[in-house]
Amino acid sequence: MKFSFTRLGAVLLKELREYRRSPFIIGTMAVLPLIFLVEPIIIIFRLGASVPHAAVDKSVGATFLLLLITPVLIPAVLAAYTVVGEREQGTLEPLLTTPVRREELLLGKALGIVAPAVALSYVVFAIVELSAHLFASNAEVVTALSQGPHVLAELLFAPLLASWSIWVGIGISTRASEVRVAQQLGTLASVPPLAVVALVSFNVFTPSFTISLAFALGLLVADIVMWRIVSAMFDRERLIVGASAQRAPRGGGHVPPAGVVRRISSIGGSDHA
Fold first, then answer.
1. pLDDT at residue 245 is higher than 70
2. CA distance 101 to 86
């Protein structure tokens, strides 16, 4: 069965519609950006006109690091819910029996997370930049926040770090038995790439265009590799048996898939990946 963008779009539509029915997802996407928005603004407003240059650089570095935590944590929490959450709702087995390739299913779920997560991180970044230009009392802060390498790093790293968190979270979600455990492990596993970001943010080495681009390319390769690894881990038979076993003690029957999942089952042939 060939890769189908139609089936991919159907999975993506299903994931986006799930947001309207899940208070947990809406709450996560609303609260976390606010948490990581307040601290950078406080840092900016605390810097008076007489603050030394070194203190300004340190504060700006902390601000950029906080801004890049947003596209890491939000996808990590949401991605951990993708498989184990479907299992707990009883919708995993019907979803896995639809004629959709595992690559299409995983990409659709990933896109459904990365799009709102990156959009929210860009909105937070724009609010911080605007607040600095309008209200910062230290001119060096505005200059430092507007430096090309820092802005480029924010624009490039946000989607790439989000993608890494998503693939790690989905991989853990396929093996975990509880949503809470999957979220904790996914969050921890998503932190390591931030180590390099921290070095750039705090000017341990100069965040030049070349360094930013090299790190972005490295993250892109890592994201592609993780996608292939997670796709290989995604075993339909094991997941279906696990979902059936978990529901068996409760005596429940099959839960019909959501409307969009039923639509997926009517797209394409009947082969399974």
1. no
2. 17
Q: Where are the alpha helices (DSSP H) in the chain?
A: 5-21, 23-46, 53-79, 84-89, 92-96, 102-135, 139-145, 148-175, 179-189, 193-201, 209-233, 236-247, 259-265
41-67 pLDDT, tens per residue?
887 777 777 777 777 777 777 788 778
- Is the pTM of the predicted complex or chain greater than 0.85? no
| CA distance linking residue 22 with residue 12, whole number of Å | 16
Between CA 122 and CA 128 the distance in angstroms is 10
Residue pair 11/106 in contact (Cβ under 8 Å)? The answer is no
Task: For the beta carbon of residue 146, count every other beta carbon within 10 angstroms.
Answer: 12
Which tens digits make up the pLDDT trace of 250-272?
Answer: 444 444 444 545 555 555 554 44
| CA pseudo-torsion sign 40, 181, 22, 13 | positive
Q: For residues 113 and 79, is the Cβ–Cβ distance under 8 A?
A: yes
Residues 6+ apart with CB under 8 A from 133: 142
Structure tokens of 209?
A: 């265009």
